Amino acid sequence: MPLLDVKDLKINFQGRDRVTEAVKGISFHLDEGKTLAVVGESGSGKSVTAMSLTRLLPEPPTCQISGEIFLRGQDVLKMPKRDLRSIRGKEIAYIFQEPSTSLNPVFTVGYQIAEAIKLHVPEERDVPGRVVNALRQVGIRDPEKRYKAYPHEMSGGMQQRVMIAMALACEPKILVADEPTTALDVTIQAQIMELLKELRQKHTMSIILITHNFGIIKDFADEVLVMFRGQIVESGPTEEVLGNPQHPYTKALIACIPRLGAKQHRLTTIDHESLVG
């Protein structure tokens, strides 16, 4: 049985005059210890799919969700609200793309990580020690000192490491990384991706990586889902999808990747109308 099994997921948003179909009946699964990359442009439905896994989206009638989301055999969409708290952060944790907006500026990073531990691991007696250990695991130097630091006292890369420490502090089974390197420079991007790879192996954790960048998934993800306008247009092992893409949209995305030394004056763009037509 897969750790996570999503079947015929549909997500609609109710506007004033019309209903927007954000996700149009997608199905996928995630096995324990594996990494699944969900790739596509902004607006393709990647993030709302990830947020639906723990029902973080607005409640009806603003948002309508149908289908099945089985986490360890239990349908998340049928869970009572009081049970959702036990899986948010404990079973499935999130890292978002803008750590500066995810961290509360008026509390120290240590306090914010400790808050998650107290909520999900109430039996923990040494919360400060667990926080320091979490900061140490993500490569933050002098974690005892950084425990008392505020988010604005850290660089973007350091803030993202804090977000990873917060997500891993409760030892979740699934980590959802939503564009975790978008706001970072290339060197820091590589460091964060390498860190996630090491932590996945250490904790036997499954990862859902949401990205628009094929360049960072080659040596990271086991499988890939390619989303276009709310649908999965191609899926399979990463090596196969990158090496022999079948769908025109996948081919177009890969063609857009800048290549060092390529002799071209303009970047490749995607003709969306031709794909729809």
Written overview of the protein:
The protein has helices spanning 46-52, 81-87, 99-102, 109-120, 127-137, 143-146, 156-168, 186-203, 238-243, 248-255, 272-276, and strands at residues 4-14, 19-30, 35-39, 63-71, 74-75, 92-95, 174-178, 206-211, 223-228, 231-237. With 277 residues, the chain is of the alpha/beta class. The strands form two sheets. The protein has a six-stranded mixed beta sheet, with helices on both faces. It has a four-stranded antiparallel beta sheet with strand order 2-1-4-5, with helices on one face. InterPro entries: AAA+_ATPase, ABC_Ni/Peptide_Import, ABC_transporter-like_ATP-bd, ABC_transporter-like_CS, Oligopep_ABC_C, P-loop_NTPase. Residues 6-254 form the ABC transporter domain. One of its GO terms (cellular component) is plasma membrane.
Please state the CA-atom Rg, rounded to the nearest Å. 19 Å
- Strand arrangement within the widest β-sheet reads 6-7-8-3-9-10
Structural class: alpha/beta
Question: How much β-strand is present in the residues?
Answer: 15-25%
H and E string: EEEHEEHEHHHHHEHEEEHHH
- Largest sheet geometry: 6 strands, mixed
Please count the beta strands (DSSP E, at least 2 residues each): 10
- Shape, per Cα inertia axes: globular
Unreliably modeled segments: none
Number of helices: 11
What is the helix fraction of residues, given as a range? Answer: 25-40%
Output mean pLDDT: 90
Tell me the distance between the termini: 38 Å
